[in-house]
Write a structure and sequence with these properties.
By secondary structure, the protein is α/β, with parallel strands linked by helices. It is about 25% helix and about 15% strand. It is globular, with a radius of gyration of 16 Å. The structure holds 2-acetamido-2-deoxy-beta-D-glucopyranose (NAG) (3 copies). It is found in: Secreted, Cell wall.
Length: about 190
């Protein structure tokens, strides 16, 4: 997992600079309202989100799941501040996600995975998709539910076809790279 993460990081950094504007790919956000039923919510209690670009042809049954990064918040004050940004609230997220490198959909920019199902999971829990605290912080109404976000989004992707996957790669950058290691045992198709 560590090796995959490092490769991915380099691939994204190296190829994003050579993309011409005409090749830029932006994918609309999917807000997973249903995740709130199982308590899978961002720091501020809003539903989690991802961007999915469907695969086709020989990539129809292959999936690459990329977990976004963004460091951790490490105190209530820090997490409270974060809960009002795109790293803690769905409301503050861009509606479109930039897909470059291993997320791009042309063989020119992404020879290996261009026709796979490609997913960018938004990072909004502040701790690499591992928090699972039932209690909501009494004063600040903060939620630490990253593990439930991971479960809810993977369940949703399974229902959208990942359950029939022949190949699936879990990858991520920075705090999302760490999240791939921490959540690897839970990742299944
Ligand atoms: C993406 O969202 C925009 C704005 O809501 C919409 O106009 C467009 O049709 C959507 N694109 C796709 C591929 O769904
Ligand atoms: C949170 O934001 C407030 C107001 O801008 C600031 O005073 C405080 O230092 C911030 N807390 C952290 C941990 O950055
Ligand atoms: C890549 O995706 C864009 C947006 O969905 C689409 O217009 C374009 O045709 C796709 N290119 C290939 C090679 O599939």
């Amino acid at each position: 997992m560590t090796k995959i993460f490092l490769l991915v990081l380099l691939a994204v950094v190296c190829t994003s600079h050579v993309l011409g504007a005409e090749d830029d790919l932006y994918v609309n956000i999917t807000i997973l309202e249903s995740a709130t039923a199982q308590g899978g919510v961002c720091l501020n209690g809003s539903p989690p989100a991802y961007h999915l670009h469907r695969g086709h042809g020989t990539g129809l049954r292959s999936w690459i799941i990329h977990l976004d990064g963004g460091g951790w918040c490490n105190s209530i004050s820090d997490c409270l501040n974060r809960s009002a940004t795109f790293l803690g609230s769905t409301k503050m997220m861009y509606q479109q996600g930039f897909f470059a490198g291993i997320l791009h959909n042309t063989s020119k920019h992404n020879p290996e995975f261009h026709n796979w199902n490609r997913v960018r999971v938004k990072y909004c829990d502040g701790s690499s998709f591992i928090g699972d605290v039932e209690q909501v912080h009494p004063e600040n109404k903060l939620y630490f539910r990253g593990a439930r976000i991971f479960t809810a989004i993977m369940d949703d992707l399974r229902s959208k076809g990942m359950k029939n996957a022949e190949n699936a790669i879990l990858t991520g950058i920075s705090a999302g790279g760490l999240a791939t290691i921490l959540n690897c045992n839970k990742f299944k198709c």
